[in-house]
Design goal:
alpha+beta, OB fold (Dihydrolipoamide Acetyltransferase, E2P), 5-stranded mixed β-barrel, 5 helices, 8 strands, globular
C-alpha cells in the first residue's frame, strides 16, 4: 500500500432537507432541458401553424391556407367512406356523414400541422396530423368518434398502435358509423 488513507465523507440531512435538495436538483435539470421561452404551441411541440381551414373536401381531406397558398391536406392514418369520388358509385351516404363530422370539427377553425416521414402522397397532397390545440388531434377525434377506420401506409405510421386502440374502442361502442355497417366489408 502507498500509505494513503481514503476518507469518506458522510452527509447528514433531515428528510425535509433531502426533499428540498431533490426538488432543487430537479428544478435545475428542468431549466436546463426546458429553457425559458414563450408558451405558444409551436415553441414546445413539433407542429407548424396555425393555418386557416378554408375547405372540407371530405371526411379525411381538407384544404388549408398555408404560407399564402391553398394546400390540400390528407389526414394520415385514417380513411373515411367516400363522398366526392369521381366514380359516383363509390360515394355512399355514410361518406357525407363523415364529411359533415369533419366539417363540424374544423369549419371556421385554425389548425396546427404535424408531419410524419413522407410529406406528400402520390396525388401531391400534403400528408399530416392536424391539431386544434396541443392536446387535440383531429385524426384521433375522427377515429374515436367512429367516422373513420385506421389506414396506415408505411412509413407514415407514427401513431399506428394508438389509432388502432381508438378504432377498436369506437367499434366496441358502436360509435358513429360503426352502427351503420359501412365498415363491415
Amino acid at each position: 500500500m502507498s500509505g494513503k488513507k481514503s476518507r469518506e465523507i458522510e452527509i447528514r440531512m433531515s428528510p425535509a432537507e433531502a426533499v428540498m435538495t431533490a426538488v432543487l436538483f430537479l428544478a435545475i435539470i428542468g431549466v436546463w432541458i426546458y429553457p425559458f421561452g414563450g408558451n405558444e404551441i409551436t415553441d414546445s411541440l413539433p407542429y407548424d401553424g396555425p393555418y386557416e381551414v378554408v375547405k372540407i373536401v371530405d371526411g379525411d381531406t381538407v384544404k388549408l391556407l398555408m404560407d399564402g397558398e391553398v394546400t390540400t391536406v390528407r389526414l394520415i392514418g385514417i380513411d373515411t367512406p367516400e363522398s366526392v369520388h369521381p366514380t359516383k358509385e363509390k360515394n355512399v351516404p355514410e361518406g357525407k356523414l363523415a364529411s359533415e363530422h369533419t366539417r363540424e370539427l374544423l369549419e371556421n377553425n385554425e389548425v396546427y400541422v404535424e408531419y410524419d416521414r413522407e410529406p406528400t402522397d402520390r396525388y401531391g397532397r400534403t400528408l399530416a396530423y392536424l391539431y386544434l390545440d396541443e392536446n387535440t388531434m383531429v385524426n384521433a377525434l375522427i377515429l374515436s368518434d367512429g367516422y373513420a377506420q385506421v389506414m396506415m401506409i408505411a412509413p407514415n405510421n407514427k401513431y399506428a398502435e394508438y389509432f388502432q386502440e381508438l378504432e377498436d374502442e369506437a367499434k366496441s361502442r358502436n360509435a358513429g358509423l360503426w352502427s351503420t355497417g359501412v365498415f363491415d366489408d
